[in-house]
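Justification of resources, computational component.

The compute hours requested in this renewal are based largely on the per-chain cost of generating structure records like the one below. Each record pairs the submitted sequence with a full structure-token output. That output is archived, and it is also reused by downstream analysis tasks.
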Amino acid sequence: MNLKRLEYFCQLAVIGNFTRAANKIGIAQPALTITIQKLEKEVGLKLINRAEKNAILTAEGQVLFKLATQLLSQAKQVELELEELKDLERGTIRFGVSAMMGSYYFPKVLTDFKQEYPNIKIHLVDQGTAALEKMLLNGELDIALVRGDLENPQLRYTELIDEEIVAGMVKTHPLAMEKTLSLAQFCQQPLVLFHEGYFLREVVSQYAKKSHVELDIRMETNLIELQKSLVRNEVGITTCLSRILEGDPQMTSVPFEPKVAFKLSLAWKKNHYLSKASKAFINYLSSTLNKVNDLPTRS
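The structure output for this chain reads:
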């Protein structure tokens, strides 16, 4: 069976539109149509119900999509293993990490790793932890930094970071002198938050939903410096890690009571081939970033 046709079919299945799928693949739309027609002829089944705008999988197409996803993932693992046999010091690591963690924990670590392993390429993917876990399960990532408190049985984990979420605000804010804050107090304030799908946002959203509280969200952004600027200019307060506010003379942090734990682990798929490059990366991060919990923080 032609793997390239299966790749195109899977892209079409995910996107659901011939034109958009062709654009993402980088081919003309008629070429994609012909490829899918050849695949249908090859398997002897109708795979796509062609609506006016959308391409909807038939029942047979859904079965093939599931099998093709697994097959393509296995083919990728074979490719990686063969590549390692050619040169054990080369490789590419698809690493998923959120914007906040990537900005504040990884710049020096990644630079040092590249100096030690100059021939290993790291492809960084920035998403929320929920999206990163899904990408791991789909075989789109080799390793990701995800929540360590909700383990998926299909993944393996090694704990990396254990901190707590705090409320970040300007030092002149009325709540800045409090020793602790409840989520109830926090949710009554104008807020600057991450987008949905990020744990620093989810802890607030989940509380608000459970308590039937309507949040006053003034701005949503995953850009850390923009978020800090908005808080600094008193647009609202935010959730963050106290480490992010270090060195900012205008801002401070107040811990929550009860404490809101923030545990992140490196995770990878159990049946996913873990290359020597990925293993070296995991060992390096574990030995380096585990020390981050012992570093002093100030607010």
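The chain has three domains: 3-70, 85-160+264-294, 162-262. The first helix runs from residue 3 to 15.
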